[in-house]
Amino acid sequence: MTIQWFPGHMTRARRQIQDKLKLIDLAVELLDARIPLSSRNPMIDDILLNKPRLIVLGKSDLADPRETEAWIERFKYEGHECIAVDASTGTRVGEIPDLARQLMQEKIDRQLAKGINPRAVRALIVGIPNVGKSTLINRLAGRNIAITGDRPGVTKGQQWIKVGKEMELLDTPGILWPKFDDPIVGYRLAMTGAIKEQILDIEDIAFYATRELINRYWDTLVERYGIEEERPEDTEQADEIVRIMEAIGRKRGCLISGGRVDLEKTSGIILREMRAGKLGRLTLESASTY
Ligand SMILES: Nc1nc2c(ncn2[C@@H]2O[C@H](COP(=O)(O)OP(=O)(O)OP(=O)(O)O)[C@@H](O)[C@H]2O)c(=O)[nH]1
Ligand SMILES: [Mg+2]
Question: Helix (H, G, I), strand (E, B), or coil: what is residue 120?
Answer without folding.
Answer: coil
